[in-house]
Design a protein that fits this description.
The chain is of the alpha+beta class and 171 residues long. It is built from 4 helices and 7 strands, in the order αββββαβαββα. α2 packs antiparallel against α4. The longest helix has 23 residues.
Length: 171
């Protein structure tokens, strides 16, 4: 089944976040990405949380996890924004990241819950399937793949530019 990204419901973010979408049999090219949801948790504090809906050209900046796809989006995306997002994904080498990075004793990590440092990148493809990449551990630097800082910094700068644009429109 091949869908256009604009036919995938925005409510798929909730399913994507909860791992309720069908898993893709393999990772697909960046051009096939319809939605991304990324977050970091450090000692139970959520940060750098973003949900981007490429097909519907909109997104959420630091959304409440339970309202993604239900509340109005925080920003709209233009064609150039979509190019910037895809370039961030390419430049940070997301396609080469492993599915999981763990550092520390598995039993201890399971008990930690949101303590320590965790990150997750949830991807929904145009065909409606999903793919996940994550890191969980006691040492932040040990669970970050090559290009991770470029990814987080790129998203952070992008969101800052969108916020500035929105403020300029309001004033």
């Amino acid at each position: 089944m091949n869908k256009n990204s604009d036919t995938l419901p925005v409510t798929d973010f909730e399913k994507l976040r909860r791992h309720k979408l069908t898993m893709s049999k393999k990772e697909q090219p960046i051009e096939n990405i319809a939605k991304i949801y990324f977050y970091e948790i450090h000692n139970l504090e959520w940060k750098n949380q973003v949900a981007i809906d490429i097909g519907n050209k909109s997104g959420y900046s630091n959304p409440k996890a339970t309202t993604i796809g239900l509340a109005p989006t925080d920003f709209d995306l233009q064609e150039n924004d979509l190019k910037v997002i895809k370039q961030i994904l390419k430049d940070s080498q997301v396609e080469s990241w492993e599915e999981s990075y763990m550092f520390g004793d598995k039993e201890m990590l399971d008990e930690m819950g949101g303590e320590g440092y965790n990150w997750q990148l949830c991807i929904q493809y145009l065909d409606g399937t999903s793919f996940y990449k994550e890191g969980k551990g006691t040492e932040k630097e040990e669970i970050q793949p090559e290009g991770y800082h470029d990814f987080v910094d790129g998203l952070t700068e992008f969101l800052a530019s969108k916020s500035l644009s929105e403020y300029e429109k309001i004033e």
